[in-house]
User: Which sequence fits this backbone?
């Protein structure tokens, strides 16, 4: 079973009018994709799909970001799957949220997989993963 995660982030300043300086936020969005077929068989791109039964990737699984001290900064559930690709068909489950961007290091976790450590700059550049045969996520 192979799964790919693409995650990107960008820093923005909260523009809420206040007297105090506003905190930077880190926008995190991505997709966890699970391979469906290598021969183009499967649902048409954009159509609903479900990951294979042996995949640890499931719609509704929690994606969580914590700071260096373990404080949860944001959490989101994986959205229902949509087919992506043409010859290599995959089921893509998206997520998107914003977290306070003041920390230098973050822990990123997807339910069912071990957590991963990343710097703010790593997240800004974008993250991409695949599910290994051992059932972990590895950076691509």
Assistant:
């Amino acid at each position: 079973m192979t799964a790919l995660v693409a995650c990107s982030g960008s820093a923005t300043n909260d523009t809420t009018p206040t007297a105090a300086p506003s905190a930077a936020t880190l926008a995190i969005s991505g997709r966890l994709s699970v391979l469906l077929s290598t021969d183009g068989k499967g649902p048409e791109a954009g159509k609903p799909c479900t990951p294979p039964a042996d995949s640890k990737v499931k719609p509704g699984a929690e994606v969580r970001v914590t700071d260096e001290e373990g404080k949860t900064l944001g959490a989101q559930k994986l959205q229902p799957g949509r087919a992506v690709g043409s010859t290599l068909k995959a089921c893509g489950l998206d997520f998107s949220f914003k977290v306070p961007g003041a920390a230098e290091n973050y822990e990123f976790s997807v339910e069912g997989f071990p957590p991963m450590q990343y710097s703010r700059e790593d997240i800004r550049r974008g993250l991409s993963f695949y599910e290994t045969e051992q059932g972990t996520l590895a950076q691509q």
Q: What stands out?
A: DSSP finds one helix and eleven strands in the chain. Residues 63 and 110 are 4 Å apart (CA to CA). Helices lie at 120-125.
